[in-house]
Structure formats: structure tokens, C-alpha cells
């Protein structure tokens, strides 16, 4: 049901009955390594192209998510997913392997929560009983497509972010055991005129703030209702901006409550990841790999995942357009109250 | 509610309270010209780039759709749309102009019905009362991105299709006057191994057949329940293949019942469009411009629009991948029974 202006309230509390995450070597060297289902030791994953490697990540994550959910392939009614590749080919090819009716979505790095929000909405409303949401990114496909060939060895400013090599998938069901999806706030496009593609965190920060405030307005909740509020991939530059903007707007949050997946997936001080992680896979592997495990261990009771996306293309940047941002928020809790 | 395996049955019959279509000069020279809200006399629409022209088409269509629906901008709760451009920038920029919470989707040329299906599902389930679905394509942006620069003057085989320059938008509401959306069947990815991007109709035909048959299985309906069943953009090569496949599978349909938007939007004999129209805008402008007007005139009582998409990227083709197809079907009727 719609609550407020842009939030879906899930009365039937869809359950995340299984998730899986598959990552690359850099994420395997990071602080969350133990939480991922599979860590590939090499970036190419023995595939002939980076694109095939990215697709493999998602095919494995979706397969493992089914196994972890103890679900037969034929019981899955819909697959919802997208990625950063042109025409979201990683998801389309993975959906072909999966064989389920397929809804392709795109919200750049907010795709993780866009797909989880839609999957939860379908289950909550009775339009499905089992839906998988998935997404992925690969550092080398993103570099190749959005920036320069990696072999070129171009230098990056410290505001740049490092695209996560990883895929995450979650199975949402009408009944079963697992964390529940309470509600989802769908974001607006927010554009404050940032044009630097090496500073996407700053471009996305205002969108995160807009969605977080819309979420509180729509639901009547406040920061204190959550044990953790994480943005998707604002990283070292964008996250403090979002924090400052929220404080200015009367929503102060400290660094133990308000965190960012892009700052959690790597050891930003030690690993060469500039300002931190980004990419569709960033919020997906942190949420589905790490945060849901913390919920299941009882360490967190209720979290808000605010996945952020920069809605640019290389062409729109070349044509002098600014970088519109968007953020979608999903509230996940330990169980039905 | 889920009916059968992959069909959403809309018990509350969401209403299409307003639509709009904006097209380019070739579509204005075609047989459906009188049904479009605005025909641009020039392909560039006085914009500095083809991409800006494509965005303008969608911005105008969404604005006119609101006007035709007699809806204030602030009453629109969600916008759902996508397009063929990398990272669906036309829709992201148009969603920025529109200001509504935005769900980006991608199903190549099936995006028109993917977005209409999701918009209808949200309204039917009470997750929204007013949702806009939109999509667009532009001949020159598609040529530039997927094929060759138009200035290059490359020749095309007769199996190639001509991307429609046009945008279509529809406002779906919980109550009001207009045609109703009865149900939607979400398609699977179907890939029979076609690798020729100049023969997309053949690549998409099996997906159309799969979705049409799934629709009949799920709903218990048969071809006789419809006055018209249209595929999105199979055009002169793909549509006869789909017709033959359906006949082989025991679902014979004649050419007055089973048609294709790609064959309707142009005079394929007179206009230089090879096998016929294609692109996200093709099924959108034919459905929202022409077919819904025929329903409102009483000429058609119930139609099934089966929008077809080829889920390739230039890169996936260059890497030797085949072209996966998908089709989403939406049933639209004159009114609540």
C-alpha cells in the first residue's frame, strides 16, 4: 500500500528467504570477506572477457541464492535485475540462464534496492510468491565502458571511486524464515549540477538525502527507529556531504548509525580504492552478504538501505550534461513484529 | 494477483486515463499520422544532438499525457520508463524534468509494455493511484549507438528494421474514464541462437510466441477473445515467423487478427524502412496513439499488445553472443465488464 507520497508499506512483510554474494579478489581482501559465499581469486574468473566474468558472477550468485533459499528453479516466478552494462546485458544473459520471467530494471548503483523494492512489492501484493532480485558489477567492465581501458593505466583523482567486482541476489517470498522487508521508498531524480564523473559521490549525495527525508516523512519514522542506515556507494567524499546536508536539515546522525557500503566493503586506508567502493554490486554484496547476516545473528534489528545511483552515460557526460542522482531506500527488519 | 505461472490479473481494472504520443517526420508520413499528438517536421527538432531530440520527444509526450489525463504534475506518484540508450539516459533526464519518483526499466523494445504492466500492477495493488509509463526511441540515436553513423551512409539488408522516432506515455489510474488494463503476462528470455543484428525480428519472434502461448495458458483465453493481437516490432521478417510458429503450435491466427506495430506505423511498401519499424517508440506510439483511439471509438473491444525486445548490446554482438529475445503482453479492453 502507498504510505505518504512515495513509500510502499508492505503489510504482509515479505521474507528474504535466501541470498547469495559472489565477489572478486579485491573484495576478498576487504574486511567483509568472510561474509561472501564465494570469492574469486582472479578478476577474469577464467572467462574470455570481463563481460563474461561479470555475467558469471551473477549466474553464480543467483544459483547460490536459490540453493540458500532451498528453492527449486521452477518455483521462482520472476527475476528482477539490472546492471551498469549498456543494455544491462549481464542481467539479460543471466536471466536467460535462470529461465524465469524477467523484468529488467535500471537505476545505476541504486538498482540493488530498486529490484528488491519491486520484488517485495510483487510478493506483498500477491502478484508473486517467490521473486529474485539481483544485480552485479565488475571493476574492469565498468572501467572499460565508463572510463579508460585498464591497460591504459590512467591516473585517478582521490574523489574517484572503485567499482566493486561482485554480484548479489536475494529471494523474496510470501512465507518462510528470514529477515522481512517492511517498506520501500522510491526516489526522485535529484540533480544539483555536478558534472565531474570522477566525483559521483558528490553527485549522488543530495539524492540520498532527499530519499532519506522522504522516507521519514512518509513513514513517521526517525533515525532512532533504525540500528543502521547505510547509503549505497557515496564513499569518502559523498557520505560526509550527505551527513552534513542531513544535519543542516535537522536530521543529525552519528557515524555509528549512518554508514556507507562503499566505505565498508574495502579497507579504504589500506586498499587502493580512492574514495571507496561503488557499482551496482557494492550495496548488493554488503547488504545481502554482510548486513543480513548481522540481522540474523541478532546484532541488528532493523536497517535502512539507501542505494544510490548516478544516472549518467559516457555520452551524456561528453555532451556536457550534469549527473542526475537517485536513491531508493528499503527497510529490512529481523522479523515480523 | 498471480494467475497461472507468469500473468498478473488485475481485479481492480486500472484505467488508462490519458496518453500522448510525439513522433518524427517519417512517422508523420506514415498511415497513422492523424493519431499522434504532435509530429515534428524535422529529425533534429531544433536540438543540438540527436540524444537531446530523443529526450525532448519523451518530455513532450509525458507533459501532453498529463494534460490529456487532466492530471496535475503533483498528483503523479511514480514514473516508470526506459529506452534503448546506454544507461537509459533519455528516461532518466525526462524523469528529472517530470519530478516524480522514478523506476527505470529496460526490456529493449518490450519496455513499452514492461512499464505499462508494472504501472498497472502498482495501481491495481494499491501501491499507487496515478502512475505514468513511458518510453521513446529516435532513429538517429539508435543508428549511431547500435549501427553506424548515419553520415556514413552504410547500406542495409532488407531484413533490417527502421527505428521509430517517437515517444509514448500513458497515465494509469485507480479510477477514471478510459480503456482498462485487464492483465499482463511477463515474458521469459528466449534465445534460439540468432546472431545477426540486422535480423532482429527473427531473433524476437520465438519470444513473442512463448509469451502469447503463456498468456493463453495462464488466462484460459484464446485468440477469439481478442479483436486484435499485435506484436511490437517483429516487422516483415519476424512477424510471419511468429505466425508460422504459432500455427505449428496449434494457435492459428489470420492477418486481420494478428498484426505487428512495426508493419502498421509505416507504409512499408512506399517508405524506405526495410522490413518495417522497430524501437521502444514503435509499440508505444502505435498502442498509445492509434490502438487506444480505436478502442475509444468502439472499433476494438479488447486487444493484446505483445511488445518484443532484442536484449543485445553492440558489445555482446561483437563478442559473438547470440541475441536473446523477450516479450511482455498486456491486455487492454474498452471498459470494465
Automatic annotation (TrEMBL), chains A, B:
<protein>
    <submittedName>
        <fullName>Stage V sporulation protein AD</fullName>
    </submittedName>
</protein>
<dbReference type="InterPro" id="IPR038369">
    <property type="entry name" value="SpoVAD_sf"/>
</dbReference>
<dbReference type="Pfam" id="PF07451">
    <property type="entry name" value="SpoVAD"/>
</dbReference>
<dbReference type="InterPro" id="IPR016039">
    <property type="entry name" value="Thiolase-like"/>
</dbReference>
<dbReference type="InterPro" id="IPR010894">
    <property type="entry name" value="SpoVAD"/>
</dbReference>
<dbReference type="GO" id="GO:0016746">
    <property type="term" value="F:acyltransferase activity"/>
</dbReference>
